[in-house]
């Protein structure tokens, strides 16, 4: 049965779902609040079972051609002396290292999914879903910001970790869906200089501060500031005016050392700046009636896991697969979607908070200890051996086979 489906959000998860739904004959509309395709953003990657999904989409080679040529990871001190390094696993066997074989800029991946769907999916930019009503057991009415409205057989909230769709379907008594890790992050682009390399470079400073540098083009590099600070007051900084946000990051990192001054100067000229609190999204359900959540809106695993994009792509495949496998019974499809995907999400959200604390030392002694441990582990080539012989499938969870999507 052909369904009329509204997807809210045109990031990675929404268009990935639209790809499968359009392929199987459904009428798909994607609504996006931005006036145009949101094809900017930081460097992301695909790992584990997500690589298998894009392979089934027939887009693996296109994505590979758009990848960033990142050679690996290195930890440096204030003089740029390398204290530990891990090469990317390009053997085609085992598990991806800290640098995936499929590193790609977020905007490039969004464009790949958009180009694969723009001829079969209707995209509406510059509009939002102000509210929606469940008309009955089979239809939902969406009211748009331009005053129009329409009915759909299914509404999909793929609108990120701050999802308004999620807020609308959860009961008022629902506990806070955010597991707050006490970590905050900002990134922006700076002009690339001669000493920038295609290696993911990390530097640690006291006070729970970490600085990353990655280079994705001959002219630009990316600066990332991460701050471990459990103060609940910091959550508000991400809703402040951009000038206030930039002043905050400059003030907290000004004495951090290494290339900090250069990165802070870049704040004044960048047109690609973003800041966020690092959280996990955990809810007891991902659907209500004919409304369902997808990607970060349903189960954001947190940036520090490196599995946000991967889990979104996998979730899109499972949701589309269950809809196709249960024609005429959308409610059963949504129940199966959650039952099938939940074990994988539980696995990737199971983080050891003591490891996170160790990764963000507050003192020079803590940094020295981390550098020593990392140097010994890398000298013994333990990460290379683990990645070479470990399974690429996170937690051993297998991607379901949906013959209906072939």
Automatic annotation (TrEMBL):
Transmembrane feature ranges: 364-382
Pfam families found in the cross-reference section: FAD_binding_3
Keywords: FAD, Flavoprotein, Membrane, Oxidoreductase, Signal, Transmembrane, Transmembrane helix
Signal peptide start-end: 1-18
SUPFAM superfamilies in the record: FAD/NAD(P)-binding domain
Superkingdom: Eukaryota
Residue ranges constituting the FAD-binding domain according to the UniProt record: 4-323
Keyword Transmembrane helix attributed: yes
KW Transmembrane (keyword) present: yes
GO MF annotations in UniProt: FAD binding; oxidoreductase activity
PANTHER family on file: MONOOXYGENASE, OXIDOREDUCTASE-RELATED
Name by which UniProt lists this protein: FAD-binding domain-containing protein
Lineage: Eukaryota, Fungi, Dikarya, Ascomycota, Pezizomycotina
């Amino acid at each position: 049965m052909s369904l009329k489906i509204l997807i809210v959000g045109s990031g990675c998860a929404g268009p990935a779902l639209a790809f499968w739904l359009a392929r199987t004959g459904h009428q798909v509309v994607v609504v996006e609040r931005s006036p145009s395709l949101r094809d900017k953003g930081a460097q992301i990657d695909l790992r584990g079972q997500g690589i298998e999904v894009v392979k089934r989409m027939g887009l693996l080679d296109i994505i590979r051609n758009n990848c960033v040529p990142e050679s690996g990871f290195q930890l440096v001190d204030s003089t740029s002396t390398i204290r530990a390094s891990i090469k990317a696993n390009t053997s085609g066997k085992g598990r991806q290292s800290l640098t995936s074989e499929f590193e790609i800029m977020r905007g490039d991946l969004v464009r790949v999914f958009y180009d694969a769907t723009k001829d079969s999916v209707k995209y509406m930019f510059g509009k939002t879903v102000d509210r929606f009503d469940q008309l009955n057991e089979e239809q939902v009415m969406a009211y748009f910001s331009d005053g129009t409205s329409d009915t759909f057989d299914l509404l999909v909230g793929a609108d990120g970790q701050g999802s308004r769709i999620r807020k609308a379907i959860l009961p008022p008594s629902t506990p806070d869906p955010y597991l707050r890790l006490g970590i905050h992050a900002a990134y922006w682009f700076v002009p690339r200089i001669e000493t920038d390399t295609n290696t993911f470079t990390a530097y640690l400073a006291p006070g729970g501060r970490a600085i990353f540098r990655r280079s994705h083009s001959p002219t630009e590099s990316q600066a990332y500031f991460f701050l471990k600070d459990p103060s609940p007051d910091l959550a508000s900084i991400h809703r402040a005016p951009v000038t206030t946000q930039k002043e905050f990051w400059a003030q907290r990192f000004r004495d951090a050392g290494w290339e900090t001054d250069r990165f802070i100067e870049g704040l004044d000229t960048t047109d690609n700046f973003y800041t966020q609190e690092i959280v996990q999204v955990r809810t007891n359900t991902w659907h209500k009636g004919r409304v369902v959540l997808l990607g970060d809106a349903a189960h954001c695993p947190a940036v520090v896991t490196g599995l946000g994009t991967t889990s979104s792509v996998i979730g899109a495949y499972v949701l589309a697969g269950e809809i196709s496998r249960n024609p005429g019974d959308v409610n059963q499809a949504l129940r199966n979607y959650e039952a099938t995907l939940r074990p994988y999400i539980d696995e990737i959200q199971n983080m050891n908070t003591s490891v996170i604390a160790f990764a963000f030392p507050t003192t020079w002694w803590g940094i020295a200890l981390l550098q020593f441990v990392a140097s010994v582990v890398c000298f013994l080539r333990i990460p290379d051996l683990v990645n070479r012989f470990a399974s690429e499938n996170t937690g051993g969870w297998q991607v379901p086979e949906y013959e209906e999507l072939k």
